[in-house]
Write a structure and sequence with these properties.
mainly alpha; 276 residues
């Protein structure tokens, strides 16, 4: 990988991580179309640490409040009725499905599920799911329940497949459960922190122990730079998306996903792009 390629992929990661369009799919597509090779699941997971750091900083006060409430609740029964204590547990519980499935299907995630035919089809199919959820959403609540947490947690686990989109899956589930767009989006951000951080840290050894014979491996310094770029771009996108969803539907992202998926299918069918 060249420095230019690393920076481009960092920008792509920062632009797409929080949008319901699948950052892993875009890293996969851009690296294949523009650079002729797959950047790999490990590289993708590690540079996502940059965008999640942006979330941690943006929501630092909220996260600090949740952590403090969780610890108070562990040692003080009276504090367990706090909404923040419950929300902290909801983040933990909602993170379990993707953690378990990520470990169980590690090999498939790094190989079979990175086939571009899978990516293209999943982009379009889950665009339809998001469209239906957005158009039929009741937008009735801004408070989460355990049922919401489980639904969004399992939806997040589907993002192990490039093309589903972590935020797209959780937002779809949140809207189906009756949450308003703002509440679903904020919880989606919080829910992503443990899973993305865990996946990124888990993948660091793969980057450090780089295979010099591989055709498109990033060096450690290149991965660090891509991660920093992803952080800067991602931080700007967090604020923008929170403002956007307050007044708009997700339909623009639905149509974008369908167009990208359809174009990718055409490129694969004509042999312009290799699926693997």
């Amino acid at each position: 990988m060249t420095w230019f390629q690393a920076i481009v992929l960092g920008i792509v990661q920062g632009l797409t991580e929080f949008l319901p369009v699948s950052s892993s799919a875009h890293i996969r597509i851009v690296s294949e179309l523009w650079f002729g090779a797959d950047a790999g699941a490990s590289f993708t997971a590690v540079i996502q640490l940059g965008t999640e750091l942006a979330v941690v900083i943006y929501f630092a006060k909220d996260i600090g409040r949740l952590v403090a409430a969780w610890f108070r609740g562990l040692f003080n029964s009276a504090a367990r009725s706090s909404p923040d204590y419950k929300l902290a547990w909801y983040v933990i519980i909602g993170s379990l499905p993707i953690a378990v499935l990520g470990v169980l299907f590690k090999d498939e995630i790094r190989s079979t599920l990175r086939n571009l035919w899978v990516t293209a089809i999943v982009l379009m199919v889950f665009a339809v799911f998001l469209a239906v959820a957005d158009e039929t959403a009741k937008l009735a609540r801004d408070k989460l329940t355990l049922k919401d947490t489980l639904a969004m947690g399992f939806a997040q686990s589907l993002a192990l497949i490039p093309g589903v989109s972590r935020s797209g899956g959780t937002l779809t589930a949140g809207l189906v459960m009756g949450l308003d767009r703002g509440a679903a989006t904020r919880y989606s951000f919080l829910l992503a922190i443990p899973s993305v951080m865990g996946a990124g840290i888990f993948s660091i050894p793969d980057i450090v122990n780089v295979d010099p014979s591989a055709p498109f491996e990033a060096s450690v310094p290149q991965t660090v730079v891509a991660t920093v770029v992803a952080f800067g771009v991602g931080y700007a996108c967090v604020a923008w998306l929170l403002r956007y969803v307050s007044n708009h539907s997700f339909m623009v992202f639905v149509w974008y996903r369908i167009v990208v998926g359809a174009v990718l299918c055409g490129l694969l069918a004509t042999g312009v792009v290799s699926p693997t």
